[in-house]
Design brief:
Blueprint: H1 14-36, E1 44-47, H2 53-62, E2 67-71, H3 74-83, E3 88-91, E4 104-110, H4 119-128, E5 130-141, H5 148-160, H6 167-170, H7 178-184, E6 189-202, H8 205-213, H9 217-225, H10 228-241, E7 249-261
Parallel strand pairs: 1-2, 1-4, 2-3, 4-5
Antiparallel strand pairs: 5-7, 6-7
Helix pairs in contact: 1-2, 1-8, 5-10
């Protein structure tokens, strides 16, 4: 099974992810859990848990004993285990979930499906481990318009390198209707889609720039791969596009979310 371009760039340490994307995923986890219907008594599977932002919300609402999580990245699995004692955290891909049929009330994947090699197989596996009537939910960033941090970065990158691997061009399932169409193509019912808007505040531009230098994700990997002169040009282009902020500033992020019911 071919690996989606960019997937390997998440094999960095969890601390690098926390400073780069984790600050957004932590804000997104609550609204996404609301959308997925996670509450007291819900048996939850967090698919592609990363360091555990959504896992934390699920534990807070349902209790650690009712939450399980999987991720294919060993450093994320270990970090999620340390952060959430009592949660069943395993190393696995979304396409091969190591759980019995009908084990969960909710299977949720936050910011994962862009990087899933076989989305149809992943939906099939998530559906398989749900009880009848269980909820399958997923969300991804709207890279084309709504994820301000990444959109501004890639616009800056394209201004100095027309061949920069803009995630809006290279990754799937971030446009309106794509996630819900994926769900509707499977044996699922009551498919709905919405948008969830969150944001993050930076103390200064260097805080934002250091997140890219950590090399996490496609944007970070691209930034870190540049020779010093090109990296400096990218930094200047990004600074200009953000209006050359002198102090703190905020960036918004829009996620597209879809949910469905296993019949």
């Amino acid at each position: 099974m071919a690996e989606v371009e960019g997937t390997r760039t998440f094999r960095a340490a969890g601390s690098g992810y926390d400073g780069f994307m984790g600050r957004y995923s932590a804000e997104l986890a609550g609204p996404f859990a609301d959308f997925a219907g996670v509450g007291p008594g819900t048996r939850v599977l967090d698919v592609g848990c990363g360091p555990g932002a959504f896992t934390a919300v699920a534990v807070g609402r349902a209790g650690a004993a009712r939450v399980a999580a999987v991720d294919p990245t060993p450093s994320f699995v270990e970090l999620c285990r340390r952060r959430h004692p009592g949660v069943d955290v395993r190393s696995a891909a979304a396409e091969r979930l190591p759980f019995d049929d009908a084990s969960f009330d909710c299977a949720a994947a936050q910011l994962v499906f862009h990087f899933v090699s076989d989305p149809e197989a992943a939906v099939g596996e998530m559906s398989r481990v749900l009880r009848p009537g269980g909820v399958l939910a997923a969300c991804v960033w709207d890279f084309a318009e709504g994820m301000e941090m990444l959109r501004t970065f890639w616009d800056a990158a394209l201004s100095i390198d027309p061949d920069a691997p803009d995630e809006a061009r290279t990754l799937r399932l971030g446009r309106e209707g794509e996630l819900s169409a994926l769900f509707a193509s499977q044996t699922l019912t009551q498919v709905t889609e919405t948008t969830l808007t969150v944001g993050s505040r930076y103390g200064d531009f260097e805080e934002l720039w250091n997140g890219f230098l950590a090399g996490v994700g496609p944007a970070g990997a691209y930034c870190a791969s540049l020779p010093p002169r090109r990296q400096a040009a990218l930094r200047d282009a990004l600074f200009d596009r953000l209006g050359r902020p002198a102090g703190s500033f905020s960036l918004a992020a829009v996620a597209r979310a879809a949910r469905a019911i296993r019949p």
